[in-house]
Amino acid sequence: MGAQRSDSADFSRLLPIFAIVSVDVLGLTLILPLLHLYAAAFGATPLEIGLVATAFPAGQIIGLPFMGALSDRYGRKPLLLLSQITTCLSFLMLAFAEALWVVFASRLLDGLFGANLSTAQAAISDLTSEKDRARGLGLIGAAFGIGFLIGPAIALVMFELTDQLAMPAITAAAYSFLSILLTTFTFRETLPPEKRRRAVIKRSNLLSVLPYLRRANTRALLMLMFAQQFVFYGFESLLGVFTLTRLGLLAQGNAFIFVWVGVILIGVQLGYIGKWTRKYGELRVLRAALALLALGLTLTALTPQQPHPLYNEREARLYLLAQRPSGTEAVIGSLGVQLPSDAGRGIGGMLWLMGALVPLAIGAALIRPAINSLLTQRAEGGAYGGVLGASAAMVSAADAIAPLWFGALFQAAGSTLPFLLGGAIMAILWLLSHCGSVRQATAAQSALSRFSR
């Protein structure tokens, strides 16, 4: 009975962590739909916009192993505060950026030191037993989903009141400062001094993948995780510039698109993924997700170039140029992306994209949980942490590479080919999921699912 009270007390200590993560994610998602506009306002090309999108995941590949080791040595609270302070500073840099390199540097700084989520996950692991850890870590996913939905919605409302790109970054910095206060006054250290150990910088997350890539039962799934994330993050990082050049969407329009995707993601994750996985098994859900992603990306690539009814090319160009600092020469035509003309305005292009994003968002909600679930079933001796760490490393590697590749393709061949090629890659992955190593890696699970039904 005493142990039960202890578990309950520990879970009551998770509430401040949930609040801290919610505020952190809210600040981040306020500016996610707008990063491409920051870059475009400084005359960035699609390749340079991809470079901005690469900065954060590239910084995390370098910084996360160091931050994790330091939190094991000095405790969770100091490292959580350090990451939140640097996140706040990165938002302020973004708000007052006077050159494109400052926009890039702000994202790199946040990636190098902004290990907010990973430190919070470590704190939750300190407080929970193995039996309750999944429930505790589920709070992170819930906080992230809430922030991802509310953040763009707040950005949309803000742009009805002001047309300044700096305001969301300033608001995000304010939310980040609030999280610093929450950590300072409500978070109690979860790793006491007697449980701390000497800081040892572990091997790079990417190097930790190698043992799992050598194993036949996990190799195909990890390669699949990398491939699908490579395509999806390429899409995600260039969606804003795609909607700008194809539909003429600025801040409000892109915030609405993110809210639309967020509603679908949360609806699937909360209401359907568990039911579908139990009914059909992870392998079938994985295949369905790949098919949906292939369909969604292909339909997105074919979105008609039809600006929305309220679009005005000259006003859009002046709007972007007005976001530059007063000392920057604003020359009409000096943008790094091609804006659509006023001709043929209508609602058809917007409706097409919203329809295309439905299968894409459903597939995105299903794909990673399905792959990770299959990976844990292949973990030797129940070593879930190692195989999930390898999966996360593959995601980080894909995130660091994809924006550059897709940005270069966007710049060289236009807005259609990158997403069309992404749809083709997903279709090929769907075909490969029906044969070879993926089927072998999931044969036991599939048989068990059929037997249980």
What do these coordinates show?
There is one protein chain. By secondary structure, the protein is mainly α. 78% of the residues lie in helices and 0% in strands. The protein folds into 2 domains: 15-190, Up-down Bundle (Growth Hormone, Chain: A); 203-309 and 346-453, MFS general substrate transporter like domains (Growth Hormone, Chain: A, Up-down Bundle), CATH 1.20.1250.20. The protein contains 20 helices and no strands. Helix 2 (14-31) packs antiparallel against helix 7 (116-127). Mean pLDDT is 78; it is low at 1-9, 327-333 and 441-453.
What key phrases describe this protein's structure?
453 residues, globular, disordered C terminus, Growth Hormone, Chain: A, disordered N terminus, single chain, 20 helices, mainly alpha, 2 domains
Beta-strand segment tally: 0
Uncertain segments are 1-9, 327-333, 441-453
CATH topology of the largest domain: Growth Hormone, Chain: A
Note the main sheet. Answer: none
Shape designation: globular
Oligomer category: single chain
Give the strand content. under 5%
Helix content: over 70%
Summed over residues and divided by their number, the pLDDT gives a mean of 78
Count of discrete domains = 2
Order of helices and strands: HHHHHHHHHHHHHHHHHHHH
CATH superfamily of the largest domain: MFS general substrate transporter like domains
Report the C-alpha radius of gyration, rounded: 22 Å
CATH class (first level) name of the largest domain: Mainly Alpha
The chain-level structural class is mainly alpha
List the total number of helices. Answer: 20
- The CA-CA distance between the termini, in Å, is 37 Å
Architecture of the largest domain, CATH level 2? Up-down Bundle
